[in-house]
Design goal:
The structure holds two protein chains of two kinds. Chain A is mainly α. Chain A has seven helices and two strands. Chain B is built from ten helices and eleven strands. Chain B is elongated, with a radius of gyration of 24 Å. Classes of the chains: A mainly alpha, B alpha+beta. β1 of chain A pairs antiparallel with β1 of chain B.
């Protein structure tokens, strides 16, 4: 073989490089997530079903509740639940960061639901953050203007 | 293999492949969705606003406060980006076609309570590309915020300016959030939904309940015996821009 002194080390380096991710994480293990479960009671469906299907269930729930007006869910074993995320799931699972988030961080999913739905542990909302673009143009992050109360004032004449 | 054998075998394998796992699948078990018991129902919900009673308390904003608190409507000071479900404006703006010049003198600057008219033929519903807004059987023009993509066609179509767009994240402008109801997020359109979530629990809309003067009358427009029909039959009322043919369900008793 021509140039075997260069080709063979080259192949070895290539193989090592390509399998780098395996070596890199070798021996390290990531702990399985431990969501904090309610002490007693039951979920709307079996634990196994919830673990694998809660996203589908939530999707059906929101369509049924909002588009069809169906607010009562009868589970596969005949128990009845009020359909709601904030007033349903989160009444039992009353800490989002210790329940939903623990698994989701592990699975690297970030459901956008919490842009609107308020987690049980949130009591107040934070002031708006200045994004880089706003800072660059010196735009204040908080909107100002005539207050709403003033705008009704003229209606009193 | 002859044709007969082949067909038998094919039939059997299809049954095994499709039917048996489907039969064993736990998802097939009965899971039922039913409407809530004790809900208030109607064939066409409507609202009559007794403006004379409303004017007795010119500084009262109880209905607005109750609604906006309950539904986490932000209080954004910038008028161009404000969000509102129910608000007040003066006669000239509310009825721009001016019934006649004398009415105009009597009513100039008088406040009128405004909210979504829950039209019989809602133009917003016709233009929504995702069916995020749709008409329920009880007449309520609903919003499914999950489907709203923020195109704002509905805002262009609505002749009453009843819809608000979230230009910014509304959360910092909600001082005292109600944990029982979601907020909205930047990029969706929102409006009054006639408190459908309260009707489901047997309660009347928050604005109607909050009005100390009982100036708001909520009821079924297609029920002969409802209070709203009785009042509308006995008193003169007007609707906003009824000439457009959208059929508003909000009436102003004069």
């Amino acid at each position: 073989m021509y140039n075997s002194d260069k080709v063979i080390p080259g192949i070895i380096i290539f193989v090592l490089f390509v399998t780098l991710p395996i070596w890199w994480n070798h021996g390290k293990s990531v702990a399985a997530p431990e969501p904090e479960l309610p002490k007693k009671g039951r979920c709307v469906e079996s634990k196994e079903y919830m673990r694998s299907h809660h996203m589908q269930l939530l999707n059906v729930w929101r369509n049924e509740a909002i588009r069809q007006g169906m607010r009562i869910y009868t589970s596969s074993d005949g128990a009845r639940f009020w359909i709601s995320l904030q007033n349903g799931c989160m009444k039992c699972h009353n800490n989002k960061s210790k329940f939903c988030d623990r698994c989701h961080q592990f699975a690297a999913v970030e459901p956008y639901c919490w842009n609107c739905h308020i987690p049980p542990e949130t009591k107040k909302f934070k002031a708006p953050k200045a994004s880089g673009l706003l800072k660059l143009f010196g735009v204040p992050p908080v909107l100002h203007g005539s207050s709403q109360a003033e705008s009704y004032g003229h209606a009193e004449h | 293999m002859d044709r007969r054998k082949f067909l038998k075998l094919a039939g059997l394998s299809v049954t095994l492949a499709g039917g048996v796992p489907g039969f064993l699948n736990r998802e097939v078990k009965a899971r039922a969705y039913t409407p809530p018991p004790g809900a208030l129902t109607a064939r066409r919900w409507g609202l009559a606003i007794d403006v004379r009673k409303c004017w007795e308390e010119p500084n009262c904003n109880e209905c607005i406060k109750a609604c906006h608190h309950l539904h986490n409507v932000p209080d954004i000071p910038d008028k161009k980006r404000e969000v509102k479900w129910i608000w007040k404006d003066e006669f000239e703006h509310v009825f721009p076609d001016k019934p006649n010049e004398f009415n105009n003198i009597i009513f100039t600057h008088k406040p009128f309570l405004l909210l979504c008219n829950h039209c019989e033929h809602p133009p917003c519903v016709r233009v929504c590309p995702t069916q995020a807004t749709f008409k329920r059987e009880d007449g309520i023009v609903m919003m499914d915020y999950h489907r709203c993509i923020g195109c704002r066609f509905c805002m262009a179509a609505c002749p009453f300016g009843a819809r608000s767009f979230n230009w910014v994240d509304p959360r910092p402008y909600i001082k005292d959030p109600n944990p029982k109801f979601p907020t909205r997020m930047k990029g969706v359109v929102e409006k009054c939904l006639f408190c459908y979530e309260r009707l489901e629990k047997g309660k009347i809309p928050a604005c109607v309940e909050a009005c100390k003067k009982k100036a708001l009358i909520f009821g079924d427009l297609e029920d002969e015996h409802s209070e709203i029909v009785r009042v509308l039959k006995s008193r003169f009322s007007i609707r906003r821009k009824s000439e457009l043919g959208t059929g508003p369900s909000v009436f102003y008793l004069l």
